[in-house]
Amino acid sequence: MATDYDAPRRQEDESDSLDALKQSIPSKPKTTADDENDTSEYALADGPDLSDAELDVVVLPPQENEFTCVECFLVKHRTQFDHESSLGPVCKDCAA
Ligand SMILES: [Zn+2]
Questions:
Q1: Are 48 and 69 a contacting pair, CB within 8 Å?
Q2: Is residue 48 domain-shared with residue 27, that is, in the same domain?
Q3: Best-predicted range by mean pLDDT (7-16, 48-57, 81-90)
Q4: Which tens digits make up the pLDDT trace of 29-71?
Q5: Which domain covers residue 13, as residue numbers?
Q6: Could you tell me the distance, in angstroms and rounded to a whole number, from the CA of residue 67 to the centre of ligand 1?
């Protein structure tokens, strides 16, 4: 009968120790996670600067005297315009 008594007791002990482990395990990496958060915050702080630089490069709307070739997808000057295809303007480089 002693074994019967021990069986449920072990399960309780196991679950108790598991809970203790679950509680103790996340608390340990939490300090490292906080450290990582610090670095990621630094990265986020650097983010806006990078996006600003990217915006300066990306925002290049074609001017009135420019067109975007449908063949090479480059913004060309109107003087480089060769003909209008069914898809759109084609530059002289692509038409040649
Ligand atoms: Zn082209």
A1: no
A2: yes
A3: 81-90
A4: 555 555 555 555 555 555 556 555 555 555 556 578 999 999 9
A5: 1-58
A6: 10
Same domain, 27 and 3: yes
Closest CA to 69 of 44, 52, 94, 34: 94
Distance 63 CA to ligand 1 centre (A): 16
Q: Which pLDDT score, from 0 to 100, does residue 96 have?
A: 85
Q: How far is the CA of 57 from the centre of ligand 1 (A)?
A: 21
Q: Is 63 left (phi over 0), alpha (psi -120 to 50) or beta?
A: beta
Contacts of 11 (CB under 8 A, 6+ apart): none
Residues 25 and 69 both lie in one domain: no
Specify whether 47 is located in the same domain as 77.
no
Identify the bridge partners of residue 91 per DSSP, sorted by sequence position. 81
Structurally, the chain folds into a number of domains equal to 2
pTM for this structure?
0.37
